[in-house]
Hints:
Structural class: mainly alpha
Number of domains: 1
Bound molecules: protoporphyrin IX containing FE
Distance between the termini: 34 Å
Number of strands: 0
Order of helices and strands: HHHHHHHH
Strand content: under 5%
Amino acid sequence: MSELQSSSKNLTRIKLTVDLVIFFAFLIAMDPRSSGIAVHEWLATAALAALIVHLLLSWDWIVQISRRFLGRVNLQTRINYILNWLLFIDGSVMMLSGFMISEAVFPTLGIELPRNFAWRELHDMTANLFLLLLGLHTALHWGWVVDTFKRYIFKPLGRLVSFRRRKDVTA
Length: 171
Ligand code: HEM
Ligand code: HEM
């Protein structure tokens, strides 16, 4: 295997790991009553770092499409690009409003903000909108998700199971 192929394989593995981490962090963050507010806040703050990594891993794509957006870009990429901006704007407001109503992270850091119902409402609205946008974002990358799951999760698991069976038979 060439060096280029193996580094692109590694990049895909890293992307898959980061995407799974932010996906599950988001699922847990969507239900603060089950997790408790402290877990909600610290987990979402950690997920922010993982989201930044998610963007950095696609930085070349972002720069390329930003340069070409007004020129020749196919429709799906154009939709993808606009949706990514919506995700970015909504995600930023969701995080900001979360910090503005923080009951765990900010108080721990010694920052006390006055209670404001508008931030609470905004946080709720942007979280629900994020869920909708994330559904579309995932749908647009569904081919990638299925391919990568097959290649890096299901196939290695299948190989492991058949190896164990063979070992049991020969033992
Ligand atoms: C829970 C949150 C998210 C999940 C699970 C998720 C998942 C994915 C997946 C599976 C891909 C395709 C594989 C890859 O390149 O990693 C992808 C690509 C991408 N995502 Fe996300 N994403 C999330 C949030 C976001 C947000 C908030 C933004 C924008 C601020 C964003 C921007 C991008 C970009 C720029 C790409 C690559 C270009 C493209 O094909 O659209 N993602 N994401
Ligand atoms: C991935 C990012 C986040 C998501 C998806 C999210 C989602 C949510 C949801 C769905 C609620 C419940 C709203 C309701 O009960 O109607 C909520 C409440 C709340 N969130 Fe977040 N949130 C995120 C980030 C944050 C951050 C970063 C903070 C602060 C550091 C935060 C602080 C809070 C607080 C204090 C509440 C109010 C809990 C209550 O009074 O019941 N959130 N969030």
